[in-house]
Each structure stands twice: as structure tokens, then as C-alpha cells.
Amino acid sequence: MTIMPAPDMAAAENARAHAERLGREVATRWPTAWAELDHMRTHPPMPWPDWCLLPMAATVAVTTRFAPVVGLHHARLPHASVAALYAWRFARSVYLVEPSLMRRLLTQVPDPISLADVANLPEWCVYVAAGHPEGPGAGVWMHLEHDAKSGRPELRLLIDFGQDELDRLLEIPVYLDRESTTQALADFRSNALAILRLNQEGANNCCRVGCH
Fold first, then answer.
1. Peptide bond before 112: cis, by omega within 30 degrees of 0?
2. Which helix or strand (DSSP H or E) is residue 113 part of?
3. pTM value?
4. Mean pLDDT across the stretch 24-49?
5. Residue 123, pLDDT score
């Protein structure tokens, strides 16, 4: 007979409190964000698949409206964090995974991962907390994204280090139309480096303009 460990309710409550603090930061920085995203979800400006709650393009539209422009680009904003929190608000659940089970799961990731493998997530956004006492709230957020420009399906991962700041979460999109998970992550790395170069060029151009 296998005895399963009791759930750590304190860890779950700490993680939920962390998520709520992030949500309050969204409400402070963009007071009408949730209402605007609700409106775009119920009055779609374009079609998208049923497995996606709301494309991130909607989040970008809301967060960049009054954002400062650096060079030719908007200042970097936590679009991915806001999108994940919006989706999480529909259930507000926190999942804790027993450490030994997590180790087994991480060694059994299928390659490739397709949309069919993840289309039936139990909620619009799944928040899995590590439950570590030194990092309450640390964990990973997962939701599905329909890229409005390319039509590409993505599994959006958001790595949470347990800091109560939207800008501290690390986004990792896994492209679900690639032949392998390795290729999907390699493509993400290439795109991320290209974005970093553009942001750096924009910051440099802004500095040169300001210096004259």
C-alpha cells in the first residue's frame, strides 16, 4: 500500500497569496485591464480557436496603449505575465506536485509535444507551485496561446521565482508546430535573442538622441 503525503495547505495558500499580489500589481498599473480583456473575449475583434481563452495580442494592446516608446519600440512590458494572470483568474487554483513525482515527470516529457497533448489542460491557466519554504510562490504557469500573426499554437510557460513583481517572471513559449521539443526550444532561443538585440538597439538609439 502506497501512502501519499498530505497536501501542504500552507504552501498552497502562500502561493495563492503571491498570485493575488501579482494580480493587484496588474490592477495598479493598468486599472481597466481586466475589464478590457473581458470585453475583447466576449466581443472578439478576430476569430481564434476554442482552446485559447484570449490571444496575447489583446494583452499587448492593453498594456502598450500608454507605454513609453524607446527608439522604435515600446519599453519592455510584462505582456506574458498579464496574459497568464488573466487566464488564471477564471479558476484561481494552485497545484502542488510531490517532488519525487515531479522528478519522474521531468524525465518522461514526450518529444515532440503537439497541441493534442496539451489541449485538455484542466484550466485556462495552470499554476504549479514548488511549495518550497524559502520561495513561496515560486513555480511555473502554463497556458495555451494562439499567435495572432502566424496562427501558430504555443504552450506558454512562465517561470516564477517567487518575487512579487510582474517583470521578474520569465516567459518561455514552446512552439507546438515543430517536429520536436528540442527544435521548438531552439527556435524560441533564436527569437528571444533577436528581440533582445532589437531592444538593445532601441535603447542605444534613444540614448544617442537624448545625448544630442
1. yes
2. none
3. 0.79
4. 95
5. 95
CA distance 97 to 79: 27
For Cα atoms 165, 144, 170, give the angle at the middle one, nearest 5 degrees.
30
DSSP code at position 124: S
What pLDDT, in 10s, does the model give residues 110-161? 566 777 778 888 999 999 988 766 667 888 999 999 999 889 999 999 999 9
Phi/psi zone of residue 125: left (φ > 0), alpha (ψ -120 to 50 degrees), beta? beta
Residue with cell string 538593445: 200
**Coil, strand or helix at 159:** strand
If you average pLDDT over residues 44-58, what whole number do you get?
A: 95
Neighbour tally for 155: CB within 10 Å:
22
**C-beta of residue 173 within 8 angstroms of C-beta of residue 157:** yes
CA nearest to 141, candidates 112, 114, 168: 168
C-alpha grid cell for residue 13?
Answer: 495558500
